């Protein structure tokens, strides 16, 4: 069996070049590549699929999701309100999440009662902070990574302000040291050791959206807990990308979206985790009818008796079309053997992409990045496979000179889709479910072609 056949690419619909890229027709004439023997299959045509390396931003569409969404549309059309209780495919809408929670729990390393599929990421982040961020005059700070995703920054700042604190004082950000690109584990742990008694909440992104660094979740959680802090994680870029053991690591809570590596479609329904040790100690502060115990929910009585665990925090009845979409993707994950085999393949693909980049004459090691005067690039994602997931973040050089914009446009002309983070970064994420070694080879080859043409 070739490695390519281990891909579940056939279970996805990938965009084609004529829909999203203006393809140049004669790539071989445009410049020399270090990959002189690269297969002619790499040559894009208008009808071929894109080299889609953007699953870290919006995962590709699973065929199974299309089927399940169509089924729900059919049930809605034929049965309307009856679909809540009688469903020809065994997913009555009142119970539609029962088939989703166990799969979701497996992905994040939790018990099904510890996870809840609901709402959207930023809203759930606020909800979890309203529940778990309980600042006092001594212990009120939030420790997070520098350059957190903007939504998280705004959420943290608005939460501390709502409690009457000044974000400048109450939010501690840890970034890379001068001249470095990723954060050292010891710097995070030392800060927790030193400032821990003032920190109410340690709340990092599990995996940095910007650099692709996978933070040492286990040691950060352990150190934070030892200092009496609550430890939460935003797993937007970690879920479906790296193996997680939220229960075992003793994480207090976590939130995530599902449209990145989990391929649930734009704006898809999100998820969160609350460790079971909080059962009974934390009851929903912002209750809704869907958190009500299933036996009594439809009695419509005045007394709120929540479902034990994370699902008691549900507020509204779930958006079934986006649940169907997520379920289609999770079933595809399940067929692929879940995170074990996928992580193995992910390491292979990302490792291969990295080693091809290292062979490029335009590659500069990170410590020499500031010395480069000709167009080139470095990689600002940690080289240790245990400190990253699928994504490599490329920093284009010299910084601030517009090289990145030209490269980004150029790559698209060769059918390579990544995403740009202004002013100088392009993120490329070979995802193990649907990307192949050919995708990785094409990305490396055309990056060289484009840089040679500048
Ligand atoms: C993608 C992402 C978001 C997006 O938030 P939404 O509420 O889903 O729009 C927020 N935070 C992080 C860390 C992300 O990576």
From TrEMBL:
Pathway(s) where this gene product acts: Amino-acid degradation; L-kynurenine degradation; L-alanine and anthranilate from L-kynurenine: step 1/1; Cofactor biosynthesis; NAD(+) biosynthesis; quinolinate from L-kynurenine: step 2/3
Molecular function GO labels: kynureninase activity; pyridoxal phosphate binding
Gene Ontology annotations for the cellular component aspect, listed alphabetically: cytoplasm
Cellular compartments annotated: Cytoplasm
Coiled coil: none
First-listed, main subcellular location of the protein, grouped into a coarse class: cytoplasm
Highest taxon listed in the record's lineage: Eukaryota
Catalytic reaction list: 3-hydroxy-L-kynurenine + H2O = 3-hydroxyanthranilate + L-alanine + H(+); L-kynurenine + H2O = anthranilate + L-alanine + H(+)
Required co-factors: pyridoxal 5'-phosphate
N6-(pyridoxal phosphate)lysine: residues bearing it: 260
InterPro entries: Aminotrans_V_dom (IPR000192), Kynureninase (IPR010111), PyrdxlP-dep_Trfase (IPR015424), PyrdxlP-dep_Trfase_major (IPR015421), PyrdxlP-dep_Trfase_small (IPR015422)
Residues where pyridoxal 5'-phosphate binds: 121-122, 149-152, 234, 237, 259, 289, 317
Annotated EC: 3.7.1.3
One Pfam entry name: KYNU_C
Residue stretches making up the Aminotransferase class V domain: 66-278
The family this protein is said to belong to: Belongs to the kynureninase family.
HAMAP family associated with the record: Kynureninase (MF_01970)
Function: Catalyzes the cleavage of L-kynurenine (L-Kyn) and L-3-hydroxykynurenine (L-3OHKyn) into anthranilic acid (AA) and 3-hydroxyanthranilic acid (3-OHAA), respectively.
Assembly, per entry: Homodimer.
Protein name: Kynureninase
Organism of provenance: Thelephora terrestris
């Amino acid at each position: 069996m070739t490695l390519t056949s281990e891909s579940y690419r056939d279970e996805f619909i990938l965009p084609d070049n004529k829909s999203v890229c203006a393809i140049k027709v004669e790539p071989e004439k445009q410049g020399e590549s270090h990959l002189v023997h690269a297969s002619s299959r790499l040559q894009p045509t208008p009808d071929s699929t894109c080299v889609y390396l953007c699953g870290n931003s919006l995962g590709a569409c699973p065929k199974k999701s299309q089927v399940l969404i169509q089924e729900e549309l059919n049930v809605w059309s034929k049965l309307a309100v009856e679909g809540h209780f009688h469903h020809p495919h065994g997913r009555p809408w009142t119970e539609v999440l029962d088939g989703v929670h166990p799969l979701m729990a497996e992905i994040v390393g939790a018990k099904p009662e510890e996870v809840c599929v609901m709402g959207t990421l930023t809203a759930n982040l606020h909800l979890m902070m309203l529940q778990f961020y309980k600042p006092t005059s001594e212990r009120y700070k939030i420790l997070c990574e520098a350059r957190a995703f903007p939504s998280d920054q705004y959420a943290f700042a608005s939460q501390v302000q709502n409690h009457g604190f000044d974000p400048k004082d109450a939010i501690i950000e840890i970034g890379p040291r001068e001249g470095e690109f990723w954060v050292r584990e010891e710097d995070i742990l030392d800060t927790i050791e030193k400032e821990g008694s003032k920190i109410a909440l340690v709340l990092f992104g599990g995996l940095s959206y910007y650099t692709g660094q996978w933070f040492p979740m286990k040691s950060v959680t352990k150190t934070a807990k030892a200092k009496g802090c609550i430890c939460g994680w935003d797993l937007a870029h970690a879920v479906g990308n790296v193996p997680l053991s939220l229960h075992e690591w003793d994480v207090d809570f976590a939130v995530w979206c599902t449209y990145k590596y989990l391929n649930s479609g734009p704006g898809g329904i999100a998820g969160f985790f609350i460790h079971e040790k909080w059962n009974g100690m934390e009851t929903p502060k912002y209750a809704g009818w869907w958190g009500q115990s299933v036996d009594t929910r439809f009695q419509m009585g005045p007394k709120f008796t929540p479902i034990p665990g994370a699902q008691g925090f549900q507020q509204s009845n779930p958006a079934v079309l986006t649940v169907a979409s997520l379920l289609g993707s999770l079933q595809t994950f399940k067929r692929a053997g879940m995170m074990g085999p996928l992580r193995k393949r992910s390491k292979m693909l990302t490792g291969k992409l990295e080693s091809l980049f290292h062979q490029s004459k335009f590659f500069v090691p990170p410590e020499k990045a500031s010395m480069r005067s000709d167009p080139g690039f470095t990689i600002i994602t940690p080289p240790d496979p245990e400190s990253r997931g699928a994504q490599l973040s490329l920093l284009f050089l010299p910084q601030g000179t517009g090289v990145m914009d030209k490269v980004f446009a150029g790559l698209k002309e060769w059918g390579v889709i990544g995403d740009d983070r202004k002013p100088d970064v392009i993120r490329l994420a070979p995802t193990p479910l649907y990307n192949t070694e050919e995708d990785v080879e094409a990305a490396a080859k055309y990056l060289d072609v484009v840089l040679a043409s500048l």
